[in-house]
Write a structure and sequence with these properties.
The complex is a heterodimer of chains A (366) and B (317). In chain A, the strands form four sheets. In chain A, strands 4-5-9-10-11-13-14-18 form an eight-stranded mixed β-sheet, with helices on both faces. Chain A has helices at 27-35, 102-105, 117-129, 150-153, 155-162, 201-207, 214-226, 244-258, 278-285, 308-324, 338-345, 355-364; strands at 14-20, 41-44, 58-63, 70-72, 85-87, 90-91, 96-97, 110-114, 136-139, 169-175, 192-198, 208-209, 231-238, 264-271, 273-274, 296-298, 304-306, 331-333. Chain A has a single domain (9-364), classed as pyruvate-formate lyase- activating enzyme. Chain A is globular and about 55 Å long. In chain A, strand 13, helix 8 (244-258) and strand 14 (264-271) form a beta-alpha-beta unit. Chain A has 366 residues and is an alpha/beta fold. By secondary structure, chain B is of the alpha/beta class. Chain B folds into four domains: 2-92, Conserved hypothetical protein from pyrococcus furiosus pfu- 392566-001, ParB domain (Alpha-Beta Complex), CATH 3.90.1530; 99-144; 151-242; 248-316, no CATH class. Helices cover 50% and strands 11% of the residues of chain B. In chain B, helix 1 (29-37) packs across helix 2 (59-68). Chain B is elongated, with a radius of gyration of 29 Å. Classes of the chains: A alpha/beta (366), B alpha/beta (317). The A-B interface holds A 78, 290, 293-295, 297-300, 307-310, 312-313, 316, 337, 339, 343 and B 200-201, 203-204, 206, 243-246, 249, 272-277, 314-317. The structure holds iron/sulfur cluster (SF4). The site of iron/sulfur cluster (SF4) has 9 residues of chain A, from strand 7.
Chain lengths: 366, 317
């Protein structure tokens, strides 16, 4: 397990490993350096990380993280948030999607991994065991892709293994790569939710780089479904482009070539939204990208989002198509208003008993 | 380097044709009078090259002396090259106000002669610009443009900030927008918005700005239209082209509101960019009578059927 690996294509840009002085003997460090033995390793003082040395190449930084590992997903008053909790395992991503918010958060190409897993597990253990009656729906894909570095770190596999003792926790592993190496340690397939983002083929081909194809994602989802898992799918960000109807129809239909509605724990939809300062970053990093020039407005959460009727047309189209394939209450919106829920689904989060509660039930398969 | 000796030259012995004399000559009558009554208080700066003295700073003093038939007091400096001559010239004129036309002339002159870092660190402060200021970045960006827009910048018709959009336009598109700045003076926000809306529409629709300008009603000037109205009209049109669906909603809102509020002083506006259907209602009063009238008006307009339409604007049921 910890011997040299064949480096997957999305990790081939990594040129160097940095390790915090305090993490030199961490099990994770030993694992990563033995899996990637050909990469140079530099031990660093975290106070003096050599930011100036960073060029175009990516590096992996095994770091001792001192902050909180378990966090809340930020929601707002006007738009319903799904009540998800984030397990913070690292920062940044080796892939490149034009719409990715991480570009605004991290200007360098340093892929950080929290190597003090013992601290992470201690914090999680305390939180999850404080009230065994309390259920948690958690995921790791907020500041990174859950599985992008899995081949090198085995992080999610460790997490899956750790969570065997916490049946009150459902873990979502959300990714745009295919890595199912964590599957062999799973004892309860009903507590792990493999998840993939989906989009219209045009978006996948023109706006996502270094990631898997839609077909590969759905094939992997089918492998999981066949193994007894229920999967999650995320249409996010939904984008308008010439021919978006055909594009989203194609991917919706494609889902059901691989999965049945009952294989899907939930499916989210989110229209492209971003902090205003992301736009010039996208323009600079992805000069060919044009969807950023669509009709966006500033929403009530101060984020830029597509004008309401335009995004509602897309939602309705996708939801109608999904319904024809038998999808129902698994579908939800990421950050939309009660009115938009009503107009698209015909019911509101309140009718479902609150979005957080509803998704909790979906995640746990109640 | 500078000598302490003061020389005296006949005005015609001084060569005033150097390209580094970037500040315009300020030869007004007051200056001539002052030299006539008090004399030349401050020597000009020259570089002595054999028999000829090249002027480095003090063109107005030389001109005044020439017109008065006086000799010119001068201090000799050793500059050596055009860049040093220009820097001394700028230093000597530091107290003068540098407008965009002057800054443009300075940067154009020095851009090909110095590297960008030096330009920012040595030249910018002489013009009252901090080396790391956003304006300095804009000037450097402007230097990458062809000279076509220099005239309208120097005339104050286009703001420097417009360079951020201009530099994204193709040569054809630059040529297409240039006439809009020939005779109209644009504020910073109007110019940047106008160009941004056109550029973004062109990217969104995969059409050149030139084609968009041709297809849409963006005529340069209309009869009896003031420049201010012309700019307002062009901005409004460009915004409509850039945001067609939003503009339609605004138009619908205006129509409904004008029907609801007719004959009253109430103003109604959708808030939040049609995200929620919320509206805001406003009026003003400064007496009980007017307040009473407003309350009566409100109770009458609240019966209008237009409200339901207004609350639903932007909704897709
Ligand atoms: S895979 Fe996810 S985290 Fe990585 S660049 Fe794309 S959107 Fe960002």
């Amino acid at each position: 397990m910890d011997s040299k690996i064949k480096i997957p294509s999305h990790l081939q840009g990594i040129e160097k490993i940095y390790v915090d002085q305090t993490m030199v003997d961490a099990p994770l460090t030993k694992r990563v350096t033995s899996r990637l033995p050909d990469l140079p390793v530099e031990v660093v003082d975290p106070e003096n990380f050599p930011h100036d040395e960073q060029g175009e190449g990516q590096s992996l930084y095994l770091k001792e993280y001192k902050g909180k590992f378990l966090r809340f997903c930020p929601g707002t008053r006007y738009y319903h948030c799904c009540g998800y909790r984030i397990i913070h395992i690292g920062e940044n991503c080796p892939m490149a999607c034009s719409y990715c918010i991480l570009q605004a958060y991290f200007q360098d190409k340093v892929l950080k991994v929290w190597a003090n897993q013992g601290d992470l597990f201690d914090e999680l253990g305390q939180a999850f065991s404080a009230d065994p009656g309390a259920r948690f729906r958690v995921g790791t894909g907020e500041f990174t892709d859950s599985l992008a570095l899995e081949a090198a770190t085995g992080y999610s596999r460790d997490l899956v293994d750790f969570l065997q003792d916490y049946p009150n926790v459902a873990l979502e592993l959300k990714s745009k790569v295919i890595d199912l190496s964590w599957m062999d340690v799973v004892k309860r397939t009903d507590r792990i939710l493999p998840a993939w983002s989906l989009n219209a083929p045009f978006v996948n081909e023109h706006e996502e780089f270094g990631v898997s194809t839609l077909k590969e994602r759905l094939e992997a989802a089918k492998v999981c479904a066949d193994a007894g898992f229920r999967v999650c799918l995320h249409f996010d960000p939904i984008i308008r482009f010439d021919g978006w109807r055909e594009g989203y129809a194609e991917i919706v239909d494609m889902i059901f070539d691989y999965l049945k509605p009952e294989n899907i724990a939930y499916l989210s939809m989110g229209s492209f939204r971003h902090m205003p300062h992301l736009k010039p970053i996208i323009e600079r990093n992805f000069p060919e990208t044009t969807y950023i020039f669509d009709e966006y407005i500033i929403g009530n959460d101060n984020k830029v989002r597509l004008l309401r009727p335009l995004r509602m047309r897309q939602f309705k189209f996708i939801v109608d198509r999904l319904r024809k394939h038998g999808m129902d209450k698994q579908m939800y919106f990421c950050m939309e208003s009660t009115e938009n829920w009503q107009d698209t689904f015909g019911y509101t989060p309140k009718d479902l008993g609150g979005l957080g509660k509803h998704l909790m039930s979906q995640a746990f398969g109640d | 380097m500078i000598e302490s000796q003061i020389y005296s030259f006949a005005p015609l012995e001084i060569d005033c044709s150097g390209e580094w004399l970037l500040y315009p000559s300020s030869s007004d009558g007051d200056f001539r009078d002052s030299i006539m009554t008090i004399g030349q208080l401050v020597p000009v700066l020259v570089e002595i090259d054999g028999v000829k003295a090249k002027l480095i700073a003090g063109r107005s003093r030389v001109a005044a002396a020439e017109s008065l038939g006086l000799s010119v007091k001068a201090i000799a400096v050793i500059a050596g090259d055009d860049v040093s001559r220009a820097l001394i010239h700028l230093e000597e004129n530091r107290s003068r106000v540098a407008d965009d036309a002057l800054k443009l002339a300075v940067f154009r002159y020095l851009y090909s002669r110095m590297d960008k870092k030096e330009l920012s660190q040595r030249v910018a402060p002489l013009l009252g610009i901090k080396p790391k200021a956003r304006d300095m970045k804009l000037w450097l960006e402007w230097m990458e443009l062809s000279h076509d827009f220099d005239g309208v910048l120097a005339d104050g018709n286009i703001p420097l900030a417009a360079v951020t959009v201009l530099s994204k336009l193709s040569e054809e598109d630059k040529a297409a927008v240039l006439p809009y700045f020939k005779n109209l003076g644009w504020s910073r926000s109007n110019a940047v918005n106008f160009l941004t809306w056109l550029y973004e529409t062109s990217r969104r629709d995969s059409k050149s700005v030139a084609t968009i300008l041709e297809e849409k009603d963006l005529s340069l000037a209309r009869e009896n239209e003031s420049p201010k109205d012309g700019v307002a009209r062009l901005c409004k049109s460009a915004k409509q082209i850039r945001y067609p669906a939003f503009s339609e909603l605004l138009k619908a809102q205006e129509k409904i509101v004008s029907e609801i509020c007719v004959g009253t002083k109430w103003r109604v506006e959708s808030v939040g960019n049609f995200e929620t259907g919320e509206v805001m209602l406003q009026t003003r009063f400064k007496s009980r009578d007017v307040m009473q009238r407003a309350i009566e008006d409100l109770s009458s307009i609240q019966k209008s059927g237009g409200w339901d339409e207004l609350f639903e604007l932007g909704r897709e049921k």
